[in-house]
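Handout, section B. The chain below has 174 residues.
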Amino acid sequence: GVFYSSSTQSNSVANAANLVKLDSTALANGISIAPALSPTGVAGSAIIFANAGTYNINATLGFYIPNTQSAYVWLAKNGNVLTYTTRQVSYPAGTGNMYMAVPMDYQVSVNAGDSIKFFWSSSSTGVQIQAAAASGSPSKPGVSSAMLNVSQIMYTQQGPQGPPGSAGPYIAGN
């Protein structure tokens, strides 16, 4: 599946865990964005898996970070934080305000119906995951604040099985 957000996401409270929200689906294929009335509680706050398996999740977040600030990104599966999934994004002092698309890769094993959420945080309320509208000359499409590309890399589901074949004759003494 391919999912993205066309909205800028702000860090309105310093050091708070912010959900990365997704508002658009480019390709689904057994994976979907959580609806408003899902167990995740917030529309667009999680992706839901229809099939069990191991998946690669490539996430790219477009961070706008004011001078010398940092941001952190991590994952949760079914509401439980996944250990050692945090990524830190920092800019050195003196570089001024920066925008950077930050790619991250994760591999997760899920059961059918499991959800994955992305969280982010910063000590600065000036940090954003920033989107940009389409622009002209030359014409360019918009820039997403967050994009997830999700691919199943190992299958655990088993397809339909046919009826068993007939057994050969039984020969006593062999």
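Note. The first strand starts at residue 2 and ends at 5. Compare this with the example in section A.
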